[in-house]
Amino acid sequence: MSIVAVLPARYAATRFPGKLMQLLGDKTVIRRTYEAAQASGLFDEVLVATDSDVIRAEVESFGGAVAMTRADHESGTDRIAEAVADRDVDIVVNVQGDTPFINKGALQQLLALFEDPTVQVASLMDRISEESDLQNPNVVKVVTDLKGNSLLFSRSLLPYPRSTDIDIPHYRHIGVYAFRKSALLQFTQWPMTPLEAAEKIECLRFLEHGIPLRMALTEPIGVDINTPEDLERAQREIERENREQGTIEQGMNK
């Protein structure tokens, strides 16, 4: 089975333009994400799909693969579909370009969901532990059925805790998707749907056409970069990792 990871990369992001070119330590966000996907060893190819010459030059500077796409795509999923349309591939994984801390364990969980032949689209979620995240519209929430199929995604609090005596978990949608190629190409044939347009959550297009996403519950994968504040948090995480690595190396040299 052929598996390709594609990083949709748009320079002019609405909330944080140019975020993929921001430095995290000594590397750009897009480079760290690309190298994390590549280091997993799970993919036959890792590819950046972009309409930006700036991002293309950055990726080519570190030896990465780039597919140039149209500038008028409504979503990252549409951009990925253009990039893989003529490629011989079975599973396509959308690794958002702003997820520099993506790791092999989470990606393995995602790909394992396709052992069920009925799964057409899959994604990741983790449990929300911070109260502030429940009310944050930048944190997309998801609820699932008992089999792990998504029922709804929303930027609002979901589910609403009407009964306060029930300890109901809340889950954050992690924006890493995997598709069978046929489902991905089908997505591009549908116009934007009402819930998708209202929430600005592209995977709602699948739900509105009756295709659930099979969700894997994983551990938090670290900060994804949506705002300048997220970048500051990611910088602190990189600094912490560097300190820990330095401590380990010092111990080995003793």
UniProtKB/TrEMBL annotation:
SUPFAM superfamilies: Nucleotide-diphospho-sugar transferases
UniProt catalytic activity: 3-deoxy-alpha-D-manno-oct-2-ulosonate + CTP = CMP-3-deoxy-beta-D-manno-octulosonate + diphosphate
Gene3D superfamilies xrefs: Spore Coat Polysaccharide Biosynthesis Protein SpsA, Chain A
Enzyme Commission no: 2.7.7.38
Pfam families for this protein: CTP_transf_3
PANTHER family found in the cross-reference section: 3-DEOXY-MANNO-OCTULOSONATE CYTIDYLYLTRANSFERASE, 3-DEOXY-MANNO-OCTULOSONATE CYTIDYLYLTRANSFERASE, MITOCHONDRIAL
Molecular-function GO term, any one: nucleotidyltransferase activity
Keyword Transferase part of the UniProt annotation: yes
Entry protein name: 3-deoxy-manno-octulosonate cytidylyltransferase
Family: Belongs to the KdsB family.
